[in-house]
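My hope is that you will study the protein record below before we discuss the fold together.
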Amino acid sequence: MSFLVIGECVADIVRGADGTERIHPGGSPANVALGLGRLGRDVTLLTQLADDPTGRLIADHLKGAGVRVESGGAPVRTPSAVVALDARGQATYTFDIAWTLETGGLPRAERPGHVHIGSIAAVTAPGAAAVLAEVERLRDGATVSYDPNVRPALMGERAEAVVRVERCVALSDLVKASDEDLAWLYPGEAPERVAARWLALGPALVLVTRGAAGSLARTGRETAVAQAPAVTVADTVGAGDSFMSAVLDTLAGRGREALSALGAEDLAGLLARAGAAAAVTVSRAGAQPPDRAELDAAGERFALRSGRAS
């Protein structure tokens, strides 16, 4: 099964609480593609990168994980984000990004089995229109996932942002969001209530990550929750994207009906495995998702700690 991820690459300029500065390849969709590549999946990233030092750094980083990078036009400079870390490793972002994706006439040998979209690329004009057009073109033969990965500084007025996000939700079979995303989009509403609202728009499965509080999964029939593994946090950059990659890897090949039919035990196992991927990522600096051997080992280790293994 092949995956197509559509979205931005970003050079993350990470500034620590101690004043140190590091540059990491990033961007939520790019991180998801990287995670799938490290898990051995056949994955293509449709994105935009400038021919500049950070663009070449990001391209080499992705290709090193086996990701095919397909260009939808080159920006003047590679997008960047200043990532400020507080003493707990929590990240806040300041962006320098333009998104002008073009998809007309792009060569593809085969249609993907799954399409993932999200973050800045799915809601930022003018490129967002091309992203949604590509999803609409492919979704008859592919399942679709979406992660809003909300960046308030780039979202504009909240009510309009909600409309754009909900359009993406309605095109998707699987949606993942963080509790922080939902708190900005729907102030004062419980994540469980938002998950129910989104399910009514069309997805078969909605996942909500809640940082150290764990995660939840909901279909039209079942709900499951999971605790977050206890780890020492280096930083939280890319944790949600690693969670998403592990979800897509675990559910690879399952169609819309199969996603709707997931039982409570299936959902609990899905959350545990995705949580293990996120835990590996937060334990090291930057968006560095696990490969398959690391994920398998982490899943076993955290299961033993929680008493779930025999």
